[in-house]
Write a structure and sequence with these properties.
two-stranded antiparallel ribbon; alpha+beta
Length: 358
């Protein structure tokens, strides 16, 4: 990779010669401006406003425009004479935990490469010190005519530097948050958590620019003379008042389907529905019928109790009747016995009398 800046890392009294290499690259597709009538390319020409003549790059310098429109020329020699200690040095000023760096300050990223064999030892020393401390280095450096702020950290076995915006370059988020007070219900938070869990983690290497691929396909189709079919754009529903709960539920289902969990869940739901058809409705019917049955049981129990009482009553009446009959028969038997006894006695008494008279 081609270096864009050569200098040194100032680590206390240690100086580490390094090369600055871009850590990122832009894959955006760039378009040219053309004349629609004939397809000719439109170019920008640098023209002086005073004489309206085109000016070459060697004739162009820098100037600062004052508030009243006055141009104050500034030459490269003027800038070179400024006391800028970081002109060719990445000066480390502090070591801090990584979470103290506001992500809003993150800017361009670079790799720092050791410049030459003598730089390998101090380079490795700084890299291992950063690893063991679990901290990042905050540094100042100068690039493209201005002093910048940077953060040094370890990526694999390389020291990387992230350009940082100065703290006063971060705008306060005033007037950005919603003006009205909004209350979020627990059910909505639960669905949001479910959506987050469903989306889960992702392999960052698997992410790619779908739009750029579509543009490349469009260019290839046009270059080969093929007809380009307009793609169906999905309605994002922007600006519409929607049911948040329904939207979250639909999002969870869509996320599960996109991750291949929809079919398994559908099968599970189908099995669950079959189980419900086999079990739950029967339970419901049983529960619905159980009330009449229980009522009928109570009624049958009551009728049985009544019958039992009637039987007991009948039995008592029968027994009382039989007992009364028994007692009357017994009484009659006793009467008969007594009467028979009396007659027998009378007969016995009468017999001797007859004998005596004889």
């Amino acid at each position: 990779m081609r270096s864009i800046w050569n200098g040194a890392i100032s680590f206390g009294l240690v100086s580490i010669p390094i090369k600055l290499v871009n850590a990122t690259e832009n894959h955006s597709i760039h378009f040219r401006q053309i004349h629609l009538a004939d397809g000719g390319r439109i170019r920008y020409r640098k023209v002086c406003e005073l004489d309206e003549e085109e000016v070459s790059g060697g004739e162009i310098g820098k100037a600062y425009e004052d508030a009243d429109g006055t141009m104050i020329p500034i030459t490269d020699e003027d800038l070179a004479q400024l006391p800028l200690p970081t002109a060719k040095t990445i000066e480390i000023v502090a070591f801090v935990p990584a979470d103290e760096i506001d992500p809003l300050q993150m800017d361009a990223a670079y790799y720092l490469s050791a410049n030459g064999v003598p730089a390998a030892k101090p380079y490795t020393l700084l890299r291992e010190a950063l690893k063991r401390s679990n901290k990042v280095a905050v540094a100042k450096y100068a690039l493209r005519g201005r002093e910048r702020l940077g953060m040094l950290r370890v990526v694999d076995d390389v020291i990387a530097m992230h350009g940082l915006l100065w703290p006063d370059e971060i705008r306060a988020p005033e007037g950005v948050a919603p003006d009205s007070d909004v209350t979020v219900r627990d059910a909505e938070l639960d669905l949001a958590d479910a959506l987050m869990d469903t989306l889960g983690e992702v392999d960052m290497d698997s992410l790619h620019d779908d739009y750029r691929e579509a543009v490349e396909e469009l260019i290839a189709a046009k270059a080969s003379g093929e007809a380009v079919q307009p793609s169906e754009s999905e309605d994002s529903g922007g600006g519409k008042v929607i049911d948040l709960i329904a939207a979250l539920e639909s999002s969870v289902r869509a996320a599960k389907k996109s991750r291949g969990e929809g079919e398994a869940e559908a099968e599970g739901e189908a099995e669950g529905k079959e189980d419900m058809a086999d079990v739950h409705p029967i339970k419901k019917k049983t529960q619905q019928k159980s009330t009449p049955k229980s009522t009928g049981t109570k009624k049958s129990t009551a009728s049985t109790a009544k019958k039992t009482k009637q039987k007991k009553t009948t039995t008592k009446s029968t027994s009382s009747a039989s007992s009364s009959k028994g007692s009357s028969s017994a009484n009659s038997a006793k009467k008969q016995t007594s009467s028979s006894g009396r007659s027998t006695t009378k007969k016995k008494t009468a017999a001797p009398r007859k004998r005596a008279s004889a």
